[in-house]
Design a protein that fits this description.
mainly alpha
Length: about 130
């Protein structure tokens, strides 16, 4: 409740509303955070934390936050590995294209007899097949 006014401007109304409901003595966590459609908080992790903070599991909130941090670290690590893999695949694409163009040009210049059969109509049919 103390940090509701310090939250970032785009999301400030949701924590302020939640804090106002808590100050009024209502228990908003269960109805507003358990259902995404009725929740003023749009981030699933924040809804989960708000729900856990005001339920019987609040005593174990430290353990839950630690587990959430570990899970988040694992997810970020996985996403970084995936992005690195995608970047290396994307980087190799232009190199393969240049290599294939080079081979094609080399065959056209150095091994004309290799590509001669494909210059006829029958050769084009073979290439299509």
């Amino acid at each position: 409740m103390a940090t509701a006014d310090l939250s970032p401007a785009p999301i400030r109304p949701a924590p302020q509303q939640l804090a106002a409901q808590l100050r009024a003595g209502s228990h908003p966590a269960t109805p507003c955070c358990s259902s995404p459609s009725r929740s003023p908080i749009r981030v699933p992790t924040c809804r989960l934390l708000a729900l856990l903070a005001f339920t019987s599991r609040a005593q174990r909130l430290g353990d839950l936050l630690q587990a959430l941090a570990e899970s988040t670290r694992e997810e970020v690590s996985l996403r970084l590995r995936i992005e690195t893999s995608r970047a290396s695949v994307a980087e190799r694409g232009p190199h393969r294209g240049r290599l294939l163009r080079g081979v094609r040009r080399g065959l056209a210049v150095l091994a004309r007899s290799y590509s001669r059969p494909f210059g006829s109509a029958e050769g084009q049919v073979v290439l299509l097949a």
